[in-house]
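User: Could you check the structure of this?
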Amino acid sequence: MVYGYIRVSTEHQNTENQRMEISRFCEQNNLKIDSWIEEKISGTKNPNKRKLGKVLMSNCKKDDLVICTEISRLGRSLIMIMNILQFFLEKGIKVWTIKDGYRLGDDIQSKVLAFAFGLSAEIERKLISERTRVGLQRARSEGKKIGRKVGQKSKKYKLSPYDEYIKFQLIFGRSKSSLAHELGVTRGTLESHLKRIMFQQ
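Assistant: Sure, the predicted C-alpha cells are below.
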C-alpha cells in the first residue's frame, strides 16, 4: 500500500497544494496513492489524537510506503518526529518526503537511523528528567515550599508530567511493565494513573 499523508494546522488552510505535490511526485516516480490520509490539526497534538496515529500508523504494514511533502508534516517537535519515524522503520514501513528528500526504508542506513532516532529520543527524555530534578533541588535550596499545602487535594500526581508520553507509548505497543520500569513506578501505580486520566477525559 502507498499512503499519501497530508496535514495542515488549521481549518482555514488548504490541503490541495500538498495533494498536488504528492500526486506530481507519484506520477514522476510511477507510483499510485492507494489511500489518502488528510487532517487539519496542529502538529503539536500527539499522534494518538490525530489520524496519523489512529488511522495511518494503526493500519500500515511491513513494506508499505508513506509519502508526505516534508518531515514537519509528521509533528512539530524533534522528539515526536523521531518517535514516529522510529515506529515506522522498526515496522519495516518506508517513509519518503518530497521537499526534504528523505528515503527511509528497509536498508542498513535506515536501520542505523532508526537506532539513532530511538537513542536521541531516550537521551532527550533523560535530559528532561534531569532538568526537572535539578530544578526541584534548586527550589528546595532556596527555601521554596515543594508540594501541596496540608489538607489540600493534589491536582497533579507523580506521573502527571508524563501523561502525553505515556499515551503515546502505549498506543504504539509499549508494554505497561516496561513503561512503568522506565518511569520508576510499579505497574499498579501506572494502571491507577491511567484510570485517573480516563476518568478526567
